[in-house]
Amino acid sequence: TQPLNVKGTLTVEPGTVVKFLRCSSLMVWDGAWLMASGTRTSPVVFTSVADDTAGGDTNKDGDLTVPNAGDWYFIAAEGSAEIFFDHCEVRYGGGPCYGTTGMLVTFGEAELTVLNSKLCHSPYDCVFSSGQTKLQNTLIYDCDRGLNSRGGDSYLVNCTIDGCGWGVMAEGGDAYCANCIITGIRDNNLVLATPLPLYYTGRFMGNYLKADSLPAHLAADNVYWQKEDTLPIFRNTYYKYREYHYYDFHLDSLSPARGIGDSLTAVVYPLDREGNPRPAGKADAGCYQYTEPKD
User: Fold this and answer.
1) How many CB atoms neighbour CB 8 within 10 A?
2) CA–CA gap between residue 135 and residue 189 (Å, rounded)
3) pLDDT by residue (tens digit) across 71-118?
4) What is the pTM of this model?
5) ∠ Cα 171 46 17 (to 5°)
């Protein structure tokens, strides 16, 4: 299937649902700009045509089909293109195509900014980046690699990465990762893995990490999960309705991720993805600052 091409400026309004047919994709070319800005109550959703939870039963087949990871290929930017997402949900993409395995992809000097969003249900990479990538207040879950950085600079602040094979896979480039939670890593229990640790530079601080293979020069100033730890991290990891999984990564009142965030980062980025303040000196790691349950 030929990709949908963006060669100018494409703006997507709040509440828009974009559904991809199987094996389809969207390409933002050199010099072009894709901007999708939703709100907390009206996010922009990019998903599979088989996903009836957003925009209804678009393919008019009732319950005959359900969405699967990798149903569609990618949203990609190349050259000097820019992608800007705020309050968006990107689901069920990342099928292997044209030598890449990401759901959101940057090539060359392209820039990707994702704020206050959810990236989920990808068989390989939620984000595959060789360009410049900034993720803030963003949930990444149910994929093989949350972020696969292939030499570009990566900037992660107040993100939650859970239920992935590797949280971050890096093969060169600089990384700044502050006040994030990277947990629920399956099988090999790696948070960050890189075959080129001597060439990977940056700073990891104020994070809650469940096991890791960080190079020694990146490992300080974080809190690490231990096998003997029994305190719950999240209030409710997930629940299931029919074939669909719904995740809730609000922090538990006893969560070890509470109050461990870097204070300077909390001053620069003072709000969580729901608009709650992050007090300096008491900032929590992850997307959500702890608040008392409303129920």
Assistant:
1) 11
2) 22
3) 999 999 999 999 999 999 999 999 876 667 899 999 889 999 999 999
4) 0.90
5) 165
d(C-alpha 288, C-alpha 175), whole Å? 22
DSSP annotation of 30: T
Comparing CA positions, the residue from 81, 47, 84 lying closest to residue 66 is 47
Query: How many angstroms from the chain centroid is the CA of residue 157?
Result: 11
211: left (phi over 0), alpha (psi -120 to 50) or beta: left
Contact 256, 229 (CB under 8 A): yes
Q: Which two tokens stand for residue 255?
A: 């969560």
User: CB of 107 within 8 A of CB of 77?
Assistant: yes
3-class secondary-structure state, position 116: coil
Q: Residue 99 has which token pair? A: 């030598």
Strand, helix or coil for residue 276: coil
Tokens of 11: 């703006």
Q: How confident is the prediction for the chain on average, in pLDDT?
A: 85
DSSP bridge pairs for 66: none
Greatest CA separation for the chain: 54
Neighbours of 213 (CB within 10 A): 14
